Structure formats: structure tokens, C-alpha cells
Amino acid sequence: QVQLVESGGGLVQAGGPLRLSCAASGRTFSSYAMGWFRQAPGKDREFVAVINWTGRIAYYTDSVKGRFTISRDNGKNTGYLQMNSLKPEDTAVYYCAAGRNTGSLDENYDYWGQGTQVTVSS
């Protein structure tokens, strides 16, 4: 029903910006909440941010609040995560996900992308 592909990851210097994109296919994408998660080596996957289907409500984990901005363009079937003032501890594989309800848990989401690596040098 929904297929997601992340892009935009790479190597960036601490303090720099990076924008991740999540391209969706499927005619029902605009009806889903879109979330971002990340997983660092040896650690559990953690919630980063979520935006509701209208794009009017967003929530962030405390560690990225004020630095990251989540957005979506339903006309382009694409979600975004703008990351500014990156820190080495932001290094992780970032995943986008789509679900029928907003939430901060893996089980809130029905569809997942393959992930994109973000590495922040110190």
C-alpha cells in the first residue's frame, strides 16, 4: 500500500546541516502520519520525530528539539527531516515510517523505509 525510500544521508561535519528525504509511493500516503526513527550501532532504535497527515502537528524527541524540523509535501509524496547543528551523537541509520496514527513507538507504524546512514564527524 505504501513504499518508502530514504535518501540524503552521508558524512557531515559537526555543526553542519543535512536534509533527509522520504519518497513514498502509493495513492494513500497523504492519509498517513509520517515518522522518523534512528538506530546507532549497538543501540535500540529510537523515535526522532513525527508529523500528522495534514502536516499541521509535529512532535520531537527532546534531544533534537530546536535543531531538527520535520515536514511533508503531500503533493510530491515526500517527507523531509531537516537536521541542523548536527552532533556526533546524531550518527545513526535514519528510517522513515508511515502509520495510521501518530506515535513514538515502532508498533505505531505500518510501513518502513530501508534506512539511510548519517555520520557526523567530531
Q: What is the assembly state of the chains in this entry?
A: single chain
Counting helices, strands and paired strands, the structural category is mainly beta
Distance between the termini: 40 Å
Reading the helices and strands in chain order gives EEEEEEEEEEE
Q: What is the helix tally?
A: 0
- Biggest β-sheet, characterized? 7 strands, mixed
Residue ranges: pLDDT <50 for 5 or more in a row?
none
Percent range for β-strand residues: over 45%
How would you explain this protein's 3D organization?
The chain is globular and about 40 Å long. The relative contact order is 0.32. The strands form two sheets. Strands 2, 4, 5, 6, 9, 10 and 11 form a seven-stranded mixed beta sheet that branches. A four-stranded antiparallel beta sheet has the order 1-3-8-7, with no helix packed on it. It has no helices and eleven strands. A hairpin with a 6-residue loop joins strand 5 and strand 6. With 122 residues, it is mainly β.
